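REVIEWER CHECKLIST
Item 1: Sequence provided? yes
Item 2: Single chain? yes
Item 3: Sequence as submitted:
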Amino acid sequence: MKFKLIILLLMTNTLYAQSTIPESIKEEIEIALSYYPDLKNTPINFEFKKKIKKSTMQAQPSIGSFFRKKGNRSYNIYISETVNISGEVLFTKNMPRDVLIGWIGHELGHVMDYRNRSNLNLIWFGFKYLLSDNHIAEAERSADTFAVKSGMEKYILITKDFILSQANIDKKYIARIKKYYLSPEEIMDIINKRDSELSKS
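Item 4: Structure as written out by the authors:
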């Protein structure tokens, strides 16, 4: 098993050499990236931030590449340095490994969504995200769906269970997760449909 993981990470290093990855969470990022072969030519900058409003991570096109053709864009995934769990402030890099992989996998789902959009569509997407609760839900559920269809359901479910099972986690954050993101039941429906389609092909 360890040998297979080493081979996987070596392959990922080659495929995603143009991405910027913090050393402290390098393995978790590379595992998440391995589920997205379509992103192998997409530069992604992973960067820690002191704090991200209402979130633990955030994906967005880089400003410098925003007006390039969609196939030539680069992206930023910002990661909050800390997260408040059960009344205790923890460093995100020290979160359980599979939870961190799931969080990163969700953000990569956003990148998959963005890379298919035109520049004008992305601008409109950003305005709607700021102004419409329904659009926030649509965007977050789309990112979850990309992650699950890429085979990351194990990590996405572990991450959701981790968040929802914390007795003292910020109730507003839990409510946000329930409101905007796919539920475990909805994820299982996607998995069943995906597997059914694969069995027919």
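Item 5: Key structural point noted by reviewer: The first strand starts at residue 44 and ends at 49.
Item 6: Recommendation: ____
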